[in-house]
Design goal:
The chain is an alpha+beta fold. The chain is about 25% helix and about 30% strand. The protein contains six helices and eleven strands.
Length: about 270
């Protein structure tokens, strides 16, 4: 792609937001607690920091500051301030560094928050991770798409990408986007395109792009925690499949579905 000649800094803000869901069936209250404990350990603040550090490397950003926290009874958060170039303040004082960091607060950052939870009645447990990759300048969050999808056990992925603000070329003409895009799917590898059902809802004139992904392959054993499909009677297995698929469809479409299967999509 031809390099743009700009007047000053490229201050277009590009934000990629994810909701990533992992779903399972935990048969007993004990299994539900064990699943939540497993997820809480697998995606604690330290692991999430490692994931965001790798994202920063992939998109070519430099980390300015990291804040992280594990929560009780479960969940974790990490926030990173990032910049396109290394932080080199004019003064070698803590005050100068602080001023430089605050200047990037609303422009370039990475955040992740996790939300493990379980259904009170029917054994369904879910894990949601919300991720924001917001950059300002030439670096693009779209480069981290594939890594983020594979970093979590992604049954459902809901993605939003938006380009905000404007920059100017050397003639003073405003530029409201600096790269071609028709869909977030343009930036996904073939492997992901084949593995997921996808729906787009895009508002091109506003540079807003929205893609939903639902994993195609459904192997019941991959969704059972604390037991296996071979340990279930056929009618039990069928009932659990129905519950899991219903849960996945409701997350995918963002609404509660009818209890009559023939009235539901897919």
């Amino acid at each position: 792609m031809k390099k743009l000649k700009l007047h000053g800094f490229n201050n277009l803000t590009k934000t990629l937001s994810f909701n990533i869901y992992d779903i399972c069936y935990a048969r007993s209250p004990q299994h539900q607690q064990e699943y939540l404990a497993y997820i809480d350990e697998a995606y604690n603040a330290s692991r999430l920091t490692d994931i965001l550090t790798k994202v920063s490397e992939i998109i070519g950003a430099n980390i300015l500051n990291i804040a992280y926290q594990d929560y009780e009874p479960q969940g974790a958060s990490v926030t990173m301030l990032i910049a396109e170039e290394s932080l080199q303040p004019q003064k070698s004082t803590a005050e100068a560094k602080s001023e430089a960091v605050v200047g990037h607060l609303d422009k370039s950052h990475l955040t992740v928050h996790t939300y493990p939870e379980s259904h009170p009645d029917d054994g369904i447990s879910t894990f949601r991770a919300d991720i924001d990759v917001s950059t300002c300048g030439l670096i693009s969050p779209l480069k981290a798409l594939n890594f983020l999808i594979h970093s979590f056990e992604s049954d459902i992925v809901i993605m939003d990408y938006r380009v905000r603000g404007f920059t100017r070329d050397i003639k003073g003409e405003k530029l409201f986007i600096d790269h071609p895009i028709h869909s977030i799917q343009n930036f996904l590898p073939q492997e992901a395109l084949e593995a997921y059902e996808m729906i787009d809802v895009n508002v091109y004139q506003e540079n807003i792009f929205h893609t939903k992904m639902l994993l195609k392959n459904f192997d019941l054993d991959n969704y059972l925690f604390g037991t296996g499909a071979k340990d279930l009677l056929e009618d039990q297995a069928d009932a659990i499949k129905d519950r899991l698929k219903r849960e996945m469809l409701e997350m995918f479409y963002g609404r509660n579905l009818s209890k009559r299967p023939e009235q539901n999509p897919l």
